Each structure stands twice: as structure tokens, then as C-alpha cells.
Amino acid sequence: MSKTARVRLVRGDITALDVDALVNAANSSLLDGGGVDGAIHRAAGPGLLEECRRLGGCPTGEVRLTRGHALPARWVIHAVGPIWRGGGENEDTLLASCYRNALALAAERGFASLAFPAISCGVYGFPIPRACRIALREIHGFLAQHDVPREVALACFDPTVHLEYATQLSLS
Prior knowledge:
The chain is built from five helices and six strands. It is of the alpha/beta class. It has one domain: Leucine Aminopeptidase, subunit E, domain 1 (3-Layer(aba) Sandwich), CATH 3.40.220. The chain has a six-stranded mixed sheet, with helices on both faces. Strand 3 (63-67) and strand 4 form a beta hairpin.
């Protein structure tokens, strides 16, 4: 199976996906935030917040793993993306690191299916076309070298993100 065939675009709510793990666009405290993070915490229930409290936070570009609690996903990989500050603060590298680290953790744990939101594209203000290019580069590069995850879903709640991914995927 080709690397592109292993990536699927999903328009909708990441919290509804039945996958081995979903990636949360988390803040560095790992505590309940807004956007995707808030939606995941609400859908997972209070056990997720309690588990996140015990982790003690996470630096930008890194990931942490928790159980999925009340989510259909069995696990949550919390990835802390960078806040966009104009592009001169290592944002591209930090965003790429989120995707690489989440994929590596999924592979290490043997997760067959993984779902990503568009990390840093909400309130963190990362330019959507740039973020989508980075995400696809990292995902395709990883899948070309690894058998798992077998499937990666790009979950897009925002229609602008969905259109950008659809455009970029049609060009690859």
C-alpha cells in the first residue's frame, strides 16, 4: 500500500473517530483548553483531565500519552504545537516535531490507526497552508519508512483546513 493510500481526509469531529489513538492539539499544561483540546477533554470526560494533571505538562514540540477514557479512540497523544509568532521563532521545526513525535509514539505502541487535527492552526494562528505542508511532509515521510500506523486520518473540523488538505493531497 502506498504512503498516500494510507492517509485519508475526514471532514468532521475528531472526537467521534474510532481509532487506536487520536492526537490532541494540546497546550503545554495539558489541561483543558479551547478548540480541539477542549472538545477532546469534554468528550473524554473528567478522567482525561485527572490523568493529564499527573503528567505535569509537556514542552512545545513534544508529546505525551494518555488513555482515551470515554472517547471511541483508545489512546490520546497530546502534542503541543507552537504559537505562530511570524515564522522566526523555530515554529516550523517545532510543528514538524509534533507530527514526528506523535507518529513515532504511535509506531512504538503498535497503533494501527491514528487521527490528527491541524495542530497549531486554531487559536495558535499557524498559517494553514504552511501547517498543512509541514504535516503532510512529516506524515508521508514517516509512512514511507514505517509499516505502522497503517492508516492516518486528517480530521478537519474547519472547512478551510479541509480544503487546503484536499488541494495539497491532490497535488502529491
